[in-house]
Design brief:
Radius of gyration: 18 Å
Strand content: 15-25%
Number of strands: 12
Distance between the termini: 42 Å
Shape: globular
Oligomer: single chain
């Protein structure tokens, strides 16, 4: 049973969403501000967190920043209906997905299940002797899907589930272009729609993480209007 943390200062949302997720078989913990959630997470992390952005004491952005210092667990943001800045900033800071308020609870359940499936696949719970589960080495890059580990020039790089899947898809075929639509198919289930901006934000954060261990990292090339390509170094 996956443990989901809901963090939102709207008690009506906490109550109704928690009831829906529990009916779907999830173990749910609720928090009405970011600091209370962080205090609990410092003791034991859930399998996934669903965070509102605007909260008292500590907002969702600050909480995500603290979380990304120590964990790559999946995070979904709840954003206001028209605030695109929050969506883009959240993705660049390391959120895996976002859902706009007001939202369909069925949609949120689907997003949670999709993200957990991706996490299970990356973590090796869907194990088989396939290209997606073998250790992959491409020049200075080493990826071990069963351990969810990435190293560049021998230095470990901590990636979220989405970032890992995107890098894996690009690096599996160096020199070949992956369109944004193809990368969406890799990172998201068919029933989950995301736009180009979402993929671009994940790629920007992925590059930033790689450059944190190697400022000269340039293996991921942007082909404007087409997509992305991994060039083996």
């Amino acid at each position: 049973m996956s443990k989901i943390a809901l963090v939102d200062d709207d008690r009506n949302i906490l109550t109704s969403v928690a009831m829906t997720l529990e009916a779907e078989g999830f173990d749910v913990e609720t928090y009405n501000d970011g600091q209370a959630a962080l205090d609990a997470f410092n003791k034991k992390l859930p399998d996934m967190a669903v965070l509102d952005i605007k909260m008292p004491r500590m907002d969702g952005m600050d909480l995500l920043q603290r979380l990304r210092q120590k964990t790559s667990m999946p995070v979904i943001f709840l954003t206001s209906k028209d605030d695109e800045i929050d969506e883009v900033l959240g993705l660049r800071m390391g959120a895996d997905d976002y859902v706009k308020k007001p939202f369909s609870q069925r949609l949120l359940v689907e997003r949670i299940r999709a993200l957990l499936r991706r996490q299970d696949a990356v973590a090796g719970e869907v194990v088989g002797d396939t290209e997606d589960t073998k250790v992959m080495e491409r020049g200075q890059l080493r990826m071990d899907p069963l351990r969810h580990s990435v190293a560049w020039k021998g230095k470990d790089v901590s990636l979220t589930v989405t970032e890992f899947l995107l890098l894996q898809a690009l690096a599996q075929r160096p020199g070949f272009v992956k369109s944004r639509d193809q990368l969406m198919d890799v990172a998201y289930d068919d029933q989950v729609y995301v736009d180009d901006r979402t993929i671009d934000s994940h790629i920007k954060r992925l590059r930033k993480k790689m450059r944190s261990v190697d400022p000269e990292f340039s293996a991921i090339e942007t082909l404007y209007g087409i997509g992305y390509r991994y060039n083996e170094e």
